[in-house]
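Shapes recur. Our protein:

. . .
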Amino acid sequence: MNKGSRAFATALVSTMLAVTALAGCGSSNDKEHSANSNAAANGAAANGNAGANGNAGANDNAAANDAAANDAGASGTTDAAKLSGKVVFWSMWSNTEPQAKVIDEAVADFEAANPDVDVEVKYNGRDINKLIKPALESGETIDVFEQDPGSALSNLKDHVLKLDDLLAQQGIGSDGKTVKDSIIPSLLGWVKSLAVPAGLDEGYYAIPQQPYAVLFFYNKALFQKVGITAVPATWEEFLADCELLKQAGIEPITFDDAYRDLFIGGYFGSAMGSDWTDGLVKDTTGELWKDPIVSQFANDMKLLEEKGYFSKKIAGNKYPAGQQDLALGKTAMYLNGTWLPNEIAATAGPDFQWGSFQFPDVSNGNGKGGRQGLSFGAQGLLINKNSKNVPAAFELLKYLVGKKAQEGMASQAVAIPATVDSTWPAPLEEAKVAFQNAKSNMPWGFGIDNGGDFSTGTVIPVFMELATGKLAPDAYVTKMAAEAKKFYAGK
């Protein structure tokens, strides 16, 4: 993954986490693995018309598809014996990745059950982010495609089919549950919450899969070595654990240039919640940077630096240097996404003892942060509104999000399954605790990235001055207040 391919910067609307644990991606499942529609939005899109058939033809086709969706949804099932034709699926994976193997198996099962349907899978890799919008706008035949739902609904809203009625169909391998009831409720609630802000009617336009969450990942063996028997729940406990690790000659915390935002946002999000953090980076006056919590943050970061709790390499760490140090046992903790164990499995090896926990509770906050909020999201499967074979396309989608395929993602790609009552991969087992604690969704970066160029060009670089001892806490507060006012002047 690389920083430029991040799709998580999409602002995720707050939603309540339901009974079951949410899930973290296998790229979704790194930043590369997350589908970033920013590149697609800048791509050389075609003229935006419906393609070779013209607007009228496209509208007629969309209406026919809506009718087909309503008919299938009303009965709650699809007669597989009547399915025929071809389904074209554009995947965000490359054919060498473990996710592709799971997809191939699901496609084979689908074709065996639907012998009159031929499926063509195009493995685009992360290039799908640049290719999907121009392809859809030019009228290329695409029935099902993978994208980050937030980005897709914002940038491809004229091409996505509403799935509400289709979700009433029975799922594949779901013990009689409908497709809707077989997916973790919090994921579906999140996807639904994205529709109206994107300018669509309320409803479901994607089925979430390859979900992810942001957590501290740690080396259990190193924790055990220094006598840490429980993960830290508070900032004070976190500091105490850092000291134990430091005294044993172990670097407690690392990160690299691709994930510096998470540490800043994690602290402010834990103290004040993501809405406050969003307001901080968008404050045109700079006055919010003078809030006492910012001074507390600056002093805490200075403490981490002075005590040697930060890795000495953080100033120059280029992705993936930080996470490799975690895998090699050189550092104990790394704040990242739930795709991490899969991403560095080759370096960490099969005997690495994975653990995870949420960003610890920061004191003196406003009561809107803490572990009640969790930064999570997912990739999604979407159907082209202009597909000529919606019934078969949705039937294929059911296999892709069926229990067998989702548990295949867990076992083969170390991804958290999107289906309820499914077994999570062992390296992510502790992530369940975070999902059980959380009640609301926070965006990627806990809101710290929502300032756009101000976040990337000022917030993160000045944080690095603080974290590496080049800037004193008081000077940090003064500089950030001044830089915010300067940046937003005249905007």
In short: The two ends are 33 Å apart (CA to CA). The longest strand covers residues 207-219. The chain has a mean pLDDT of 86.
